[in-house]
Amino acid sequence: MAATDLSMQLLRQRELLELMLFKLEELEMLVTTGRTRWVQHATTEVERVAKALASGAILRDTMFVDVATEWGAPEATTLRELVEIAPTEAWREVMGSHHAVMTGLADEIAQKRNTVNQHLRTALRVTQDTIAGLGEPTGEYAASGALVGGGGSRLLDVQV
Question: pTM of the full predicted structure?
Answer without folding.
Answer: 0.77
